[in-house]
């Protein structure tokens, strides 16, 4: 370190006479004795340094170094360590005592939850958010019903339906859809997700999970993707090798729903046929969220009749109907 | 007329024959004056001669029910659009504003909350004098006009009837207002836009209340109180349809009805009595008397010295009470559905009123779900925690938390009305029935509009033994004498019941319209500082 020059001339300060004079406490302690005495506490130690400084008005590195060396050599570090040990033990005892009191009072629930959450690889378990889906009665999200049926024995999609004040009448198709949703029995033993479906005068089907992190998910296929992620393991596709294929099919569905002309819709159907080829389901022999997406999209477009579908698609549709039951 | 004047002048001349000199001078002066009056008379005569519109305008004589004038076909301003191009019709209304400019006069006619622009232009039918007369009618005078509705190419932004105007052919003042008014309706009805660069004159709430008659004429106030009437009517209709019976309860009572100390005392002959804080006890007695489902609409008094935007000392309470079979949710759903039905009725039948309130006070339309959204208290707490608010499981919602929860629910479910169910038992009174599945919660609920509580209810313990047990648990040895009557009817066998608590009509209207002060939705509000008008 750089050494700094003393700014004030030594002992040349003229004190005003209107003040009481106090004894200089630090000067009374002799720096030499404090070093030799060894077992000094931290406060004494600092005061001894202060006293040195007050005399020289500069940090005497030599003395400081000597003191540190001296302290390190002393075996009282061991005594400090022992003291710490003892304090920790006392704390443990206190904790156990508190725990017992808590158990007696029957308020232990929360702490137990916390510890298990943290033991779980340091990951905090957050309960699954209830989700809200806003849909227009003209664009009924049939995928919800399809998923509910397909997951009947795996996972409970608990759908509650509401009508928003912006919709005066939801029409017969939506009412029928509501009735069908309500018909499926709810199995509370299975893992479940609560879905609130609100008929609303909105442009897109949108999904909201958390109001504080308000990032709506637009489009029915994206809602399917979300549900596919939180749903049963059998339908989680992100880890599967068919991941890209399924995403592609869902993207085609998205485009299909946006097509305004019949010609464009048929072109999309042809694309779907290309993806299906001779497979049992989209992306293999297992039913996946891609099938749900395609199935529900085709229901939403009544303009596409059996005539527009290829034999392979028609056969697929029959197979899918057994699962989705719409 | 001119000849008449000359005759009079000649007569005077004859009478002053004696003093010839004087007479000469006088004659000169006389002649001067004569010519002057002649000119004036000439002018007047000329004017009246030219006034082709004489009889088409003027002050109407006092209406003493002399004629029925049934030939006059009066049309309401808001129905004018259906009478377009159908010829002349009559309209009665108030002069909202009128300004004449040369040969034209624009007059805005107001009828309740509808306004329409009227135009008088000098022409075949209308004379200059008539235009002048129309321009000088004081504001707020009542007038009858005969006019022809004509559609206009450009929208008239300042009126509610934006697509048409009236071409006036006759105009009569029925009742003239004073030229100076304590407040201008224009100022009182100016939209509350912060970014408006124009005139920014506002009428203070107290000035409005002091001159309530004038203030109530603004389109927004007209709409508010029509809508308020709608709330009452819908409440009655909906409940009557569901088999409820309307009852009327006394307002002068002998003991405080809700345990609280905040009652008004009135002298009652040699004794004193209290003004009813709620019809609670009488509703209960009606239930115990097997009326099964009852409701009442009536004044409720609270002697609370709270000067806030949401408290009044007298308000109209909409109360209902019903016995239920097995589950208090039967009641919860009835109340919730009643609210939704009221909101739906307002949305469908009162859109015009809502719109005209919206023109003055910028607020979002009230949104709701059908069936009403019911959240559990624990779900609400979870939502608050997620938003970063530290709140205990058994802690009551503070007012800011209540508002925040309202915003969160709005963001997620897009509804301004929701029900919070299953409140913690600890924060509810001892007579609340605990939840059968989890004893930390209770069978109690609150209902919220735009994040403010409007109703609080709970299943009350109807079993006297259990009530005493719960009271002991709460450290209440004996039921306080003031509350004793709540348990007394149970001695005669009481059906399970859920007092719904009172719904303040003014508060419901205030929150439905999104207004900031309850005094705006009470026609003649009573608060700790106001007993008049």
From TrEMBL, chain A:
Transmembrane among keywords: no
InterPro entries referenced in this protein's UniProt entry, alphabetically: AIMP2, AIMP2_thioredoxin, Glutathione-S-Trfase_C_sf
Pfam families: Thioredoxin_16 (PF18569)
Keywords: Cytoplasm, Nucleus, Protein biosynthesis
Biological processes per GO annotation: translation
Location in or out of the cell: Cytoplasm, Cytosol; Nucleus
Primary localisation category: cytoplasm
Domain AIMP2 thioredoxin-like: 128-217
Presence of keyword Cytoplasm: yes
GO cellular component terms given for this protein: aminoacyl-tRNA synthetase multienzyme complex; cytosol; nucleus
Domain of life: Eukaryota
Gene3D superfamilies: 1.20.1050.130
PANTHER family reported for this sequence: AMINOACYL TRNA SYNTHASE COMPLEX-INTERACTING MULTIFUNCTIONAL PROTEIN, AMINOACYL TRNA SYNTHASE COMPLEX-INTERACTING MULTIFUNCTIONAL PROTEIN 2
Protein name: GL24943
Species: Drosophila persimilis (Fruit fly)
UniProtKB/TrEMBL annotation, chain B:
Primary subcellular site in the record, as a coarse category: cytoplasm
InterPro entries cross-referenced by the UniProt entry: Aa-tRNA-synt_II, aa-tRNA-synth_II, aa-tRNA-synth_II/BPL/LPL, Asp-tRNA_synthase_2, Asp/Asn-tRNA-synth_IIb, NA-bd_OB-fold, NA-bd_OB_tRNA
Pfam family, one: tRNA_anti-codon
Start and end residues of each Aminoacyl-transfer RNA synthetases class-II family profile domain: 225-533
Biased composition (Basic residues): 17-26
GO terms for biological process, alphabetical: aspartyl-tRNA aminoacylation
Cellular localization per UniProt: Cytoplasm
Protein name listed in UniProt: Aspartate--tRNA ligase, cytoplasmic
């Amino acid at each position: 370190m750089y050494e700094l020059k003393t700014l004030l001339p030594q002992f040349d300060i003229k004190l005003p006479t209107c003040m009481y004079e106090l004894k200089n406490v630090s000067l009374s302690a002799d720096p030499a004795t404090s070093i030799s005495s060894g077992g000094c506490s931290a406060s004494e130690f600092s005061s001894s340094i202060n006293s040195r400084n007050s005399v020289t008005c500069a940090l005497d590195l030599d003395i400081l170094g000597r003191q540190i060396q001296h302290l390190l050599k002393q075996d009282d570090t061991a005594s400090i360590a022992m003291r710490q040990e003892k304090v920790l033990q006392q704390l443990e005892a206190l904790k156990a005592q508190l725990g017992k009191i808590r158990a007696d009072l029957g308020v232990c629930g929360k702490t137990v939850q916390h510890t298990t959450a943290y033991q779980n690889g340091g990951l905090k378990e957050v309960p699954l958010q209830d989700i809200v889906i806003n849909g227009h009665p003209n664009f009924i999200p049939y995928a919800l019903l399809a998923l509910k049926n397909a997951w009947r024995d795996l996972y409970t999609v608990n759908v509650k339906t509401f009508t928003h004040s912006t919709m005066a009448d939801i029409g017969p198709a939506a009412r029928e859809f509501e009735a069908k949703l309500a018909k499926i029995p709810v199995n509370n033993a299975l893992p479940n997700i609560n879905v609130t479906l609100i008929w609303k005068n909105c442009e897109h089907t949108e999904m909201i999970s958390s109001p504080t992190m308000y990032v709506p998910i637009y489009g029915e296929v994206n809602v399917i993707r979300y549900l596919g992620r939180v749903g049963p393991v059998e339908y989680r596709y992100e880890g599967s090798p068919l991941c890209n294929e399924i995403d592609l099919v869902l993207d085609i569905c998205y485009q299909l729903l946006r097509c305004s002309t019949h010609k464009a819709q048929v072109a999309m159907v042809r694309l779907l046929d290309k993806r299906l080829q001779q497979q049992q389901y989209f992306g293999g022999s297992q039913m996946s969220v891609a099938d749900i997406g395609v199935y529900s999209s085709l229901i939403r477009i009544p303009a596409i009749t059996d005539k527009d579908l290829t034999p392979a698609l028609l056969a697929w549709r029959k197979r899918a109907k057994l699962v989705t039951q719409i | 007329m001119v000849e008449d004047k000359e005759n009079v002048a000649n007569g005077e001349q004859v009478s002053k024959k004696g003093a010839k000199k004087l007479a000469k001078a006088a004659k000169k002066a006389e002649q001067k004056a004569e010519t002057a009056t002649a000119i004036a008379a000439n002018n007047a005569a000329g004017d009246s001669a030219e006034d082709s519109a004489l009889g088409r305008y003027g002050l109407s004589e006092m209406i003493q029910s002399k004629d029925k004038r049934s030939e006059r076909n009066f049309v309401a301003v808001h129905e004018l659009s259906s009478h377009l191009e159908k010829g002349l019709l009559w309209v009665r209304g108030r002069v909202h504003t009128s300004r004449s400019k040369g040969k034209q006069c624009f007059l805005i006619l107001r009828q309740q909350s509808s306004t329409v622009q009227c135009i008088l232009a000098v022409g075949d039918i209308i004379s200059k004098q008539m235009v002048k007369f129309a321009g000088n009618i004081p504001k707020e005078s009542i007038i009858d006009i005969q006019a022809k509705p004509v559609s206009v190419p450009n929208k008239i932004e300042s009126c509610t009837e934006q697509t048409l105007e009236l071409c006036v052919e006759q105009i009569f003042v029925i009742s003239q207002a004073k030229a100076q008014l304590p407040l201008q309706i224009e100022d009182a009805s100016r939209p509350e836009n912060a970014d408006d660069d124009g005139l920014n004159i506002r009428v203070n709430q107290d000035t409005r209340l002091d001159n309530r008659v004038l203030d109530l004429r603004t389109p927004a106030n007209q709409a508010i109180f029509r809508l308020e009437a709608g709330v009452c009517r819908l409440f009655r209709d909906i409940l009557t349809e569901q088999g409820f019976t309307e009852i009327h309860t006394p307002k002068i009572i002998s003991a405080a009805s809700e345990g609280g100390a905040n009652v008004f005392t009135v002298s009652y002959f040699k004794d004193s009595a209290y003004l009813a804080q709620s019809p609670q006890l009488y509703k209960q007695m009606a239930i115990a008397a097997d009326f099964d489902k009852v409701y009442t609409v009536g004044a409720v008094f609270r002697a609370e010295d709270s000067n806030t935007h949401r408290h009044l000392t007298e308000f109209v309470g909409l109360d209902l009470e019903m016995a239920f079979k097995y589950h208090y949710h039967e009641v919860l759903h009835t109340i919730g559905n009643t609210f939704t039905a009221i909101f739906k009725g307002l949305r469908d039948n009162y859109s015009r009123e809502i719109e005209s309130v919206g023109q003055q006070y910028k607020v979002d339309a009230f949104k709701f779900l059908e069936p009403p959204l019911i959240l559990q208290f624990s779900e609400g707490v979870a939502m608050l925690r997620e938003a970063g608010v530290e709140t205990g499981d058994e802690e009551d919602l503070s007012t800011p938390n209540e508002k925040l929860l309202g915003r969160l629910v709005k963001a997620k479910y897009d509804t301004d009305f929701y029900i919070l169910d299953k409140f913690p038992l600890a924060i509810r009174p001892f007579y609340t029935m605990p939840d059968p599945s989890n004893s930390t919660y209770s069978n109690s609920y609150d209902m919220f509009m735009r994040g403010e509580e409007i109703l609080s209810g709970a299943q009350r313990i109807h079993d006297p033994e259990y009530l005493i047990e719960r009271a002991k648990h709460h450290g209440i040895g004996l039921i306080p004498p003031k509350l004793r009557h709540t348990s007394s009817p149970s001695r005669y066998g009481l059906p399970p019941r859920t007092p719904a608590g009172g719904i303040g009509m003014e508060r419901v209207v205030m929150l439905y319209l999104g207004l900031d002060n309850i005094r705006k939705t009470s026609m003649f509000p009573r608060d700790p500082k106001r007993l008049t008008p």
